[in-house]
Amino acid sequence: MEETKRQYEYMERAKELLQKKKEELGRPFTFCVQTFGCQMNARDSEKLVGILERIGYVESDSENADFVIYNTCTVRENANQKVYGHLGKLKGLKKKNPHMMIALCGCMMQEAHVVEKIKNSYSFVNLIFGTHNIYKFPELLVTAMESDRMVIDIWKDTNKIVEDLPAERKYKFKSGVNIMFGCNNFCSYCIVPYVRGRERSRKPEAILDEIRRLVADGVVEVMLLGQNVNSYGKNLEEPVTFAQLLTEIEKIEGLERIRFMTSHPKDLSEELIEVMAHSKKICKHLHLPVQSGSTDILKKMNRRYTKEQYLALVDKIKTAIPDISLTTDIIVGFPGETEEDFQDTLDIVRKVRYDSAFTFIYSKRSGTPAAVMENQIPEDVVKNRFDRLLKEVQNIATEVCAVHEGTVQPVLVEQINHQDTQLVTGRLSNNLVVHFPGTADLIGKIVDVKLKECKGFYYIGEQI
Ligand code: SAH
Ligand code: SF4
Ligand code: F3S
């Protein structure tokens, strides 16, 4: 593709510029990429790392580096605050190292008030770009290297998908794969559609090619990424369903496991359930964000399903795939949420019995419809509901986790255990984690493990 070629040319140019600096100073130049937010951002960061390594920077895990880049998230206010906190610290580091460059990208940068604040209060930042033009990073880097002013390039939206830029994976044996970008759902609390733009799907051939290349490079598990994978392919010139895409991916030889996220309940098809039930590679795990158990609140959230519809869907899934693990996201304290609405949320948690749930306190995002809704809930009420919900979720998760005790399951070994180096840590198909005695040579392999003891959210096991 024309654009890809252009960016590779900029990588060459950046490499020359950096080479000169390295020779002048007689030392390597380091970089540090800090990622906030979701798996999309994590995957984007792997692309940034891939580009920086190609240019000749050396990765460092400290922010005391020559090039520091923050890939930001803005889904909740505390994600933003973290970035400002980090930036404050960088100012001092940059004073000590005149060669230091600082870049900011990701979802937060798509908000005009954020960029304004950085221009005014953090003028030492060298480069700001957004989510739509991340593929232009090599070009922007060259501009920033040649300029002594802040370089800013933010696009409102795009329909462009640029393929085949380098990426450096964090794990050798597993990888995220974007299948679509953006979101069209406009849940009333959510900023993502505003900062990630309209939904666009990659062509199936591009996805399949990427996965084949990943598999040839040692990958055994892929995580297909999209804000709503269930609407994959609807807007392609030749429409393809998500289930059809999965069926094609399943045929790739050498690929062992397929995961995906996130599934919006309103678009989850019978066809998908069918394909999952018969698949040998699709993991027995479905992340199915419910957000609230109250039909009233769901309506105000613009989720487009009722409590009853969600429960019926869960029933259908559990009947077709009895050993499926279900996880979810829940928001507490959405504007207008009454105690009765909250009881509905507790009720749905008790009925579905999730393997785990991410629980969030509602965060007001300016520009979203919910931000101007009446009846914002007082902090102490929300906190109290949050604590009650968390307790319920944890109690149930512990019980659900324990049902596998004593069974033998295939486990993909991911790493040496952080606390005890005699142990390795791996993941079951249903996404539960197990620690068991083992050595580094097992990393990336799928082995049978007996789940000896459930410790609440994870297992202690033994290789069979
Ligand atoms: N596309 C995914 C979610 C992406 S954001 C989906 O629809 O499921 C991840 C989670 O963050 C959401 O599921 C939601 O629970 C939470 N979230 C999003 N906006 C939020 C807000 N304003 N306040 C609190 N939590 C929020
Ligand atoms: Fe946000 Fe809803 Fe889109 Fe998920 S589906 S990213 S919650 S708007
Ligand atoms: Fe955050 Fe952007 Fe993901 S706002 S959750 S990093 S899509």
Structure write-up:
It is a single chain. The protein has 464 residues and is an alpha/beta fold. It has helices at 2-25, 39-55, 77-96, 112-121, 137-145, 192-196, 204-216, 242-250, 270-278, 295-300, 307-320, 339-352, 379-402, and strands spanning 30-35, 58-59, 67-72, 101-106, 127-129, 151-153, 174-178, 180-181, 200-201, 221-225, 257-261, 285-287, 325-332, 356-361, 408-416, 423-428, 433-437, 446-454, 458-463. Helix 1 (2-25) runs parallel beside helix 5, helix 8 packs parallel to helix 9 (270-278) and helix 12 (339-352) runs parallel beside helix 13 (379-402). The longest helix has 24 residues, at 2-25. The mean pLDDT is 96. It binds S-adenosyl-L-homocysteine (SAH), iron/sulfur cluster and FE3-S4 cluster.
Quick structural summary:
This protein is α/β, with parallel strands linked by helices and 464 residues long. Helices cover 38% and strands 21% of the residues.
